[in-house]
Amino acid sequence: MLGDYPVRASIGVTDIQRAVAFYEGVLGLVPESVGPSADIEGGARFYKAGQGTMLNVFETPTAGGTQSTVATFYVDDIDAIVHRLSRAGGEFAHYQGFDQDEHGIGPRAGGGRIAWIADPDGNTIAIEADD
């Protein structure tokens, strides 16, 4: 039933200002709009992404980092993106037993390559490419 409707990723964080430093300063996202999160004025950011998609980052007392991927960005040149994000202060995860290079890029199940970066709350974001 819901397959005909758009979906948006929403990521809960404990401190919106700390999250803004990461999502805007490291990932380079530009807010489309700023709004409240429950009773927190200015506690939500809405970032427009490719192909009409949106990422919502919002402050909430129930936020908690997850080691599972909460959002995935699909890119054309994963090497260039990982390099730029690393230069901006991003730190990519390295998992024991996973065949990643020194930059944190490894093979993706089913083909292509993948790397993971976490926000200040530990929410994991994937960067993927089909190359």
Describe the protein's architecture and organization.
The structure is a single chain. The protein contains 2 helices and 8 strands; from the N terminus they run βαββββαβββ. 21% of the residues are buried. The model has no long low-confidence stretch (mean pLDDT 94).
- Record the strand order, biggest sheet: 1-4-3-2
Counting DSSP H or I runs of 4 or more residues, the number of helices is 2
Beta-strand content bin: 35-45%
Mean residue pLDDT: 94
Give the biggest sheet: 4 strands, mixed
Question: What is the strand and helix layout of this fold?
Answer:
Elements: E1 9-13, H1 16-26, E2 31-37, E3 40-48, E4 54-59, E5 69-74, H2 78-87, E6 106-107, E7 113-118, E8 124-129
Features:
single chain; 131 residues; alpha/beta; four-stranded mixed beta sheet
What's a quick, concise take on this entry?
The chain has 131 residues and is an alpha/beta fold. The chain contains two helices and eight strands; from the N terminus they run βαββββαβββ.
